[in-house]
6-phosphogluconolactonase
Amino acid sequence: MNIKLLTLGLAMSFLNSQAQNIPLYIGTYTEGTSEGIYKLEFNPSTGELSNLQLAEAIQNPSFITYSPNKRYLYAVSESLGGSVSSFKIQENGQLQFLNKVDSNGKGPCHISLNRQGNKAVVSNYGGGSASIYSIARDGKLNEASQIFDYNTMDRKSHAHSAQFFRDELFVADLGMNALYQYKLKNDNYELALPEIVKMEGNPGPRHFAMTKTGQFIYIINEYGSSVTSVKKTDTGFEQIDYDSTLDESYEGKNSCADIHLSKNELYLYGSNRGENSIVVYKRNKLDGTIEKIQTMSVHGDWPRNFTLDPTGKFLLVANQRSHNITVFRIDAPTGKLTFLTEVKVPSPVCLLF
């Protein structure tokens, strides 16, 4: 009887551990052994990753995102003839292809949706453009309704990321050294500011993180290895801080990649490719300024995208060149990182919970 109870207890424990796992989708580059979008199971209690599976074969899905209800997944295909695809997420976690549309520019590298889930914006790095799409109720993408071409006779654009915020749209252009602001009018986005703040030198704004209220924006600069902190004012925007992402002792080459705020917005994280680190800042919630408190090795090579898990207790890094995803525990009182574990995945560049 005791043996039966013990066996039942172990079985229940195993089932509970399996039930609490949540899916992590991984976008990759497919020039090597990768075949497309992969899926792992993540244990939010322990930080463990397991059960690697190919979710969908697709060329160079370098950035992926969910619909707000998480019923659909959207992926760019970063290639010369760029495209954007929509998928329905099945009960087993596999992806059912719905449709594909033109990205209207070479090298699409980022996609995001608005809160309603009825519009998407794609940034085309190679083409120097951003495209707006409406999304049908069945999750399919319509052809682009607006295309913004940022190239000029004198300079090549590299649009790298974009985010909706209420009736606004912000686009980071690494090539033109600007963060654009658009406002929605009559179901179209119109340019409100060609640059929200003047970017001195050529830092190369790549990605950005916004506070929930939209009052503060933190821009990570690929060329400048820096973070530009911006505050929204009654008349526009103003720069309030500019901080290096690198440790003072580091002297090699570096290219910044991604940036995220902690759940409580007390800490800010950024990724360094070259130094191969995650920089941690403590954030002043009153005035928005930041202070560097940690430089943590990613235990890999070329950290591109990273993400925080839904609990806010773990940070996961996609290391493109070392073909691994590393997991770090976040210390709640300090925001600092401790390395936990890693798992091998071919050329990971985007992580999606």
